[in-house]
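User: Predict the full complex structure for these chains.
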Amino acid sequence: MSETAEAGPSPEEPPVVTREPHQWLGAALITPSLLFIGLLFLLPMGMTVWMSFHNWPLLGEPRFIGLENFSELMGDRRFWSSIRFTALYTVLVTSAIFLVAFPLALLVDRPLRIAGFFRTIYFMPVVIGFGAAATLWTWLLNPDNGVFAELLLRSGLVDAAPRPTESFWPALIVVILMVVWKQAGFTMVILLTGLQSVPDDVTEAAKIDGAGPLARFVRVTLPLMRNSIILALVLNVTWSMLAFDQFFIITQGGPRNSTVTAVFSIYLQSFSSYRLGYGSAMSLVLLVILVAISAMQMAIVNFRKAPE
Amino acid sequence: MSDATFSESHADDIPLEATPAIDHVKRALYIILGFAIAAIFIMPIVWSVANSFKLPAETLSDPVRLIPRNVSLDNYRNLDTVGDGLWSFVRNSLFLAVGTVVVTLLIAVPAGYGFSKFRFPGQNVIFVVILATMMIPFQSILTPLFLILVKLRLANSLTGLVLIYVTFQLPFSIFMMRNAFDAVPKALIESARIDGASQWALMRRITLPLALPGVATVAMFAFLNSWNEFLAALIFLSQEEKFSLPVMLVNVTTGIRGMIDWGALQAGITITMVPCILLFLTLQRYYVRGLVAGAVK
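Assistant: Here is the predicted structure of the two-chain assembly.
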């Protein structure tokens, strides 16, 4: 990202700043924020690494055990299956969100009052939290007196209320449906800012050159809104890799622990089994995977950018 | 997201030869489609709110009905049998959200001002480090945070949770505030200084009022994120009397004494959702500004 370019004081900065008499005041103004970030972010970051080399129970003395946590982790079938499940979920939910959000962005990209109204409505579920959204869907989906069961029964499509959380694929699919409902509006807005950053005269020029609507969209609009697409992709992938609330609440990890995500398994090790060292080792592995995915996404962007 | 929010808008690609009649049909189809999709997005919310006002028995027997046969607050009253009662959860959530907003502003506004209007050694490195923390998810440092809170005697305390929420709000907020102060014209500051304005007067009278939209954005994100946060609240709050609304909701879904009170759950969900929706509807242009700031970055 280009924040470094923005962060650097440009040489042509007007004289006001250089004549600023109280340099120390600037440093003083940022000190409280450094205290917070140092104590509650950088310190725990370092502690995660330190703790991962220890057998660290909640009560009692931590014991240094070198790389034992990591060697145990290598053979931990449950952990790796949670990572595999999280990856599967990430691919499916990110694709589903894009499949819904892209048409929505095109739909609301109109200079009409009503399009603004639609944007607001489609975005609304984004601002309610995952906790409320997931409990709401738990109710909608419950077979005894949920709205969906009632609607399906009344329409005569089914004879018995479906129990989606009792087998793997239906459970995964209803969670994905919930997340698409809740998050599609967010991706829609990001894509919309991309669509609106494409200058009209560029698409006009392509039109005059005889490009059809589809060719214009694929060859002109899509490449020009690349930054928004990448941003939406990176955010959706990161959030999905960190998924916890929706599975903890809707499927409770079931059936038979098949929908336990990576963060869920860290939660279970650290705060249910109280193996804090082992939980830290898991956190580090997840962090490495996340950083690798982001780096890969960045590398792909830069690779595509190079020929220009 | 009113039209004013998205200043640039594309003209419709309506072919020149299109007759007004076809235009009308196209427009009608567009509106019908738009409303149909809107219904999908809004119905789950409407169902929850509608059921929260039914008699508990009707919530169970006829969840689909949108207008309650008898409007009743029994579902809300039943929440009082959960833990310390509805108001205790609302109070806790308000404490978390308002606390996070206030402390975040108290720290991020001066920091953004410091980064924008001053030059001091190490400034750029520090700023990049602060931004880099945005890429590290708080989920990966929960375990040590728990130990630190225990050491600070802030485990199982709302104040401790506020401190954590503030920390994870800071990178975005400082970035937002620096940009807001950067947008204040330098000439304005210069002339005020020539007129003899002190540093404090400069910030309070000139820069801060102009940076107010940034403050609104920061405050709104801090409120929504802390009001809705679930995982850290679940881990760091261990007594029912400290639970926030999302934690309470999940406790209701897993059942109290083996029974799930679906009606009370709808009341709880409604109370959790509605403030967020109202806040968004009134301040949505600041919300979008925050998203776009992220997009530009």
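Residues 75-305 of chain A form a domain with the MetI-like fold fold (CATH 1.10.3720.10).
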